[in-house]
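Field log, afternoon session.

UNIT: design team B
ACTIVITY: writing a sequence onto a fixed backbone
BACKBONE:
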């Protein structure tokens, strides 16, 4: 679903965006808000039209399975997704309270679309009432999910449009920025827990050499 109407850069409708990959890092997510090139990335983000910082951010644990698949030119390897059905798995995430317009611009940038641009996310009322939307079947992150509410605001995330993206290992730079975001958001997590978290994820398990994974996670 791709809209053609415009939305103002700022609005009164707020949503929580839950990031579980590189957007666990506040510095990396701020590149989507203010513009800039994230550490380890090859692509500069244009930033949102409204560059107001998130009103709040906090940890959130998602009952979805984390996996790595596809290939990003930006990160030179597979990227993080979650399975679109709930399970007994846990994916560590961080959510940011931003406007509806900012969320639209974040989704555009995540799918390598320019900002400003058309509305690509459902109307705000639809985000409140429904639980899943398919934006574009050809996009990397073309499936939106509502994973709950907090303070009457919907909690939204996005994941793979299709289930057939080839599983694969992420690059060192991409994994390291996720590790940084995990340590920043969940300071009580020890290195062994982070290593186990990634070691059991599809795309890494059985693909990435355990010694390499330990080196990337532990930094030595």
């Amino acid at each position: 679903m791709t809209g053609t109407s415009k939305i103002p850069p700022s609005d009164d409708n707020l949503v929580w965006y839950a990031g579980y990959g590189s957007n666990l890092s506040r510095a990396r997510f701020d590149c989507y808000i203010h513009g800039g090139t994230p550490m380890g990335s090859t692509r500069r983000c244009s930033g949102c039209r409204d560059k107001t910082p998130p009103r709040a951010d906090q940890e959130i644990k998602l009952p979805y399975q984390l996996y790595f698949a596809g290939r990003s030119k930006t990160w030179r390897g597979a990227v993080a997704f979650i399975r679109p059905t709930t399970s007994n798995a846990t994916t560590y995430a961080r959510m940011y309270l931003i406007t509806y317009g900012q969320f639209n611009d974040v989704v555009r940038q995540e799918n390598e679309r320019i900002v400003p641009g058309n509305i690509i996310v459902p109307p705000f009322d639809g985000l409140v009432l429904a639980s899943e939307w398919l934006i574009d079947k050809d996009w990397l992150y073309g499936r939106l999910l509502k994973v709950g509410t907090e303070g009457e605001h919907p909690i939204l995330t996005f994941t793979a449009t299709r289930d057939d993206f080839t599983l694969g290992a992420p690059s060192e730079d991409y994994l390291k920025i996720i590790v940084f975001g995990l340590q920043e958001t969940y300071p009580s997590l020890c290195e062994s827990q982070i290593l186990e978290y990634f070691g059991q994820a599809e795309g890494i398990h059985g693909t990435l050499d355990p010694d390499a994974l330990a080196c990337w996670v532990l930094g030595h």
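LOG NOTE: Helices lie at 26-34, 100-110, 124-129, 172-185, 191-199, 210-218.
NEXT ACTIVITY: expression trials, pending approval
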